[in-house]
Amino acid sequence: MQATGKVGLFGAAGAAGQIIGAALSAAGRDYRVVGRSRAPLEAAFGHDPHAEIVTWNPDDPASISAAASGLQTVIYLVGVPYDQFASHPPLMQKTLEGVTAAGVERFILIGTVYPYGRARGNPISENHPREPHTFKGKMRLEQEKLVLAAHGRASGSTSLSTLLLRLPDFYGPGIERSLINGIFEGAAHGKRAQVIGPVDVQHEFIYLPDIGPVVEKLTRTPEAYGRWWHLAGTGTITQREVARQAYALAGREPKLMVAGKTLLRVLGLFNPLMRELVEMNYLMTEPVVLDDSALTQLIGPIAKTSYKDGIRHAFDAARAAASASTDTHRDTAKTA
Fold first, then answer.
1. pTM of the full structure
2. What does DSSP say about strands 7-10 and 31-35: parallel, antiparallel, or unpaired?
3. Is the pLDDT of residue 240 over 80?
4. How far apart are CA 155 and CA 69, in angstroms?
């Protein structure tokens, strides 16, 4: 490991950005958060004296270079709407050109299992073929290829090193974009949880707060660059078991409304997001499970939160949010 300079989180306002930012702050490191709008960045990072807030326009090369100026490492977390995945490769191309021009030395993409396509047997290591059969998987693969091809690209006296950290589906406290967040909200409110089926197939989830210390360590591990790595969860679990544990914490029996592929197709006639979920439903019936022994060998033991503890933390956050919402409504009613 070696000491490293300032880190920039591009697309920082989401859950992963906030978690990685917290890990950098805990390590006493200054970092920059970059996003299109200042308000959400202020809300998420305004309390942290280690955080510098910068806005950018990812369609403007000068804006990209300005956002990356003075950074040693860029961590790329930029998301796009689920029905606009075609924008991933051109957005990445512009970003790589901008950060290279700014003299950035290291670039980390937080990636997904989409580029693998169907698993040839679980768990899979990094040498599994990348053969996506879905449009989203193909767009993510093109994005990855750009990142890996940029490894070793020079600008002036500096050279860019790149890596990809691949994650499974994630969950955690207050993480609304998690596949299983509806279970925690349903348990907390005493309502039926809407989930995407099937719910009895083993699936891998990572407790998202666990990724922060790993990413922080990778920013100062130069030998990690030039390839992709897996970061796995703590084994697998079914959505039904997640629901059983979450609703038990609320003292209730699980109540689920399950949307399978057929229902998703029907809902997709009216809801564009549901339409987009259809092609990725194979991951629910044929899950991809990651083997991260290579990463463990590189950086040492990785602290991981058990499903039991992670589910409790996520439920507690959902219950606190539900209680706060009830209090707000009550206060509003009193003043109305």
1. 0.93
2. parallel
3. yes
4. 13
CB of 58 within 8 A of CB of 76?
Answer: no
Task: Answer yes or no: do 163 and 120 share one domain.
Answer: yes
pLDDT value of position 101: 94
In a domain, 264, yes or no: yes
- Helix (H) or strand (E) holding 301, with range, is none
Render pLDDT for 90-138 as a digit per residue (tens, 0 to 9).
Answer: 999 999 999 999 999 999 999 999 999 999 999 999 999 999 999 999 9
The residue range of the domain holding 239 is 172-203+235-288+305-315
Cis peptide before 222 (omega within 30 of 0): no
Q: CB-based contacts of 62: which residues, under 8 Å, 6+ apart?
A: none
Q: Is 280 helix (H, G, I), strand (E, B) or coil?
A: coil
**Mean pLDDT of the residues in the chain:** 93
Tokens of 114: 């989409």
Round to whole Å and give the CA distance between 72 and 63.
17
Hey, what are 38's tokens? 């200042």
> How many CA atoms does the CB half-sphere of 17 hold within 13 Å?
25
Task: Answer yes or no: is 335 within a domain.
Answer: no
Pairing of strands 203-207, 169-171: parallel
H and E: helices and strands count for the chain: 13, 14
- Is 213 found in the same domain as 69? yes
Same structural domain, 68 and 212: yes
Q: Are the beta carbons of 175 and 210 closer than 8 angstroms?
A: no
pLDDT at 335 over 60: no
pLDDT class of 279 with cuts at 50, 70, 90: confident
Beta bridge mates, 204: 236
* Bridge partner residues of 230 (DSSP): 166
Q: Which helix (H) or strand (E) holds 57?
A: none
**What's the burial of 172, exposed, middle or buried (CB within 10 Å: 0-12/13-18/19+)?**
buried
Q: Are residues 250 and 130 in the same domain?
A: no
Tell me the C-alpha distance between 61 and 94, whole Å.
7
Q: Which residue has the tokens 């998987």?
A: 137
